[in-house]
Amino acid sequence: MQKNTSTLLQTYLQHQGSPFSDPGFSAPELQLSSLPPAAVPFKVWHALDDRERLGRAQGAFLALTQHLQLVGDDQSDLNPGSPVLLAQLGAARLRAQGLLGNMAAIMAALGLPLPPEEDTLGLVPFGASAFERKCRGYVVTREYGHWTDRAVRDLALLRAKYPA
Which among 9, 58, 130, 149 is least buried, having the fewest CB atoms inside 10 angstroms? Predict the structure, then answer.
C-alpha cells in the first residue's frame, strides 16, 4: 500500500502540468482545513493511547475517502483522458475505505468506541479554479501517503503490544 501512495503522488503531479510536474516540486506549506495533517512530533505520537491513536487514524481515513472522491471528480473534469490517474485515485479511495474498515474492526476487538462518521468536506467550493483544484488534489494525494505511512507505524506498534 505504501508503494502505491508514492506512485499515486508521482502520477498525479505528472498530469497537472507546471509547476506541479516540474522536477523536485514540493509545497509542504499547502494544507486543507478539512483534512488533518499526519505530521505529529514523535513524543506526542508515541504518548498516544490506543483509543486516541486509532481514533485519529480513523478520522483521517474517513476524511481521505471523501477527499479522494472529490479529487477523482476534479480530475475527471481536468484530465478526462488520463485513465491511469483516474484508476489510481479510485484504487486509493478503495484502499482507504478498506483500511478504515480494518481499523474499525481493531477498535471493536479492543473494546474502543468508534468515532462518529462526519461529512469532513463540508461546503465544497465548486467554483474553484483549475489551479485551486490541482492544489487540493496535491495536498490530498500527499497526505494520503503520509497517513498511510503513519497507519503502518500505528498498526506495527499495536501488533507489538498485542501479539496474536
Answer: 130
Q: What angle do CA 34, 72, 20 make, to 5 degrees?
A: 80
pLDDT of 60 higher than 80: yes
Place of cell 501479539: 163
Q: Is the peptide bond before 19 cis (omega within 30 degrees of 0)?
A: yes
Q: What share of the chain is helix, strand, coil (3-state, %, to 5)?
A: 65, 0, 35
| Structure-block grid coordinates of residue 110 | 479492543
User: What pLDDT, on a 0 to 100 scale, did the predictor assign at position 118?
Assistant: 80
Q: What is the pTM of this model?
A: 0.92
**What is the signed CA dihedral for 82, 26, 100, 149, rounded to 10 degrees?**
120
DSSP 8-state symbol, 42: H
**Cα torsion through 101, 41, 7, 137, rounded to 10:** 80
Instruction: DSSP for 63-114, please give it.
Output: HHHHHHHHHHHHHHHH-TT-HHHHHHHHHHHHHHHHHHHHHHHHHHHTTPPP
- Measured distance CA(53)–CA(112) in Å, rounded: 11
